[in-house]
Design a protein that fits this description.
108 residues; 4 helices; two-stranded parallel ribbon; 2 strands; alpha+beta
Length: 108
């Protein structure tokens, strides 16, 4: 199993007309592009995960993270594992966005 993660800029001019109308439009478009890229590998376990800079994920990403969290919970018996996984992804996204800013604007 492999995740191919793409971060789509919610506020990019090329996405703005769609993202102002529908939350997750940029993520859905990015995921569709990845699905086309891997269409020849349809029988493998490659999951195109797309997350917008605003934090919205495509539905496959939500389902994949939820299922992964559920499976971790079944081993650890901690029902919060799915929530923790979503939080870790959110923190990773925020840290990545901070890397794009000048260092004096974003202290981690």
């Amino acid at each position: 199993m492999a995740w191919d993660v793409t971060i789509a800029d919610t506020y990019a001019e090329s996405h703005l007309s769609a993202t102002t109308l529908t939350a997750g439009a940029a993520a859905d478009k990015a995921a569709a592009n990845k699905e086309m890229k891997y269409s020849a590998l349809a029988n493998t376990h490659i999951f195109p995960v797309a997350i917008e800079t605003s934090g919205v994920m495509n539905q496959l990403a939500v389902d994949l993270v939820s299922e992964t969290g559920r499976r971790i919970s079944s081993v650890t018996e901690d029902t919060r594992e799915t929530m923790f996984l979503f939080q870790r992804l959110s923190v990773a996204l925020q840290r990545g966005k901070c890397g794009l800013l000048p260092s004096h604007l974003c202290q981690l």
